[in-house]
């Protein structure tokens, strides 16, 4: 959520947030109120590539999935403690 808020404050207009919470969750509602697109990865597949990917959960599988959706010449920011 912090990364989303910073990106919106810096002027990014096309921001997508992925998570595993339902579409009616507080997080999903806040994401939409801030002006971003919310995708529940338990329900929907992410089919596009992105210029900037920020992975902040520390989940190894989420980090690999984030990198799979990094566009050509994109920037990846991996935050959190990934074991191993």
Structural account:
It contains three helices and four strands, in the order αβαββαβ. It has 84 residues and is an alpha/beta fold. It folds into two domains: 1-41, no CATH class; 48-84, no CATH class. The protein has a two-stranded parallel ribbon with strand order 1-2. It has a two-stranded parallel sheet with strand order 3-4. The longest helix has 9 residues, at 26-34.
Question: pLDDT under 50 segments (min length 5)?
Answer: none
* SSE-based structural type: alpha/beta
Proportion of helical residues: 25-40%
Compressed to H and E, one letter per element, the order equals HEHEEHE
How many extended strands?
A: 4
Q: Can you give the mean pLDDT?
A: 92
Could you describe the largest sheet, including whether it forms a barrel? 2 strands, parallel
Q: What is the tally of helical segments?
A: 3
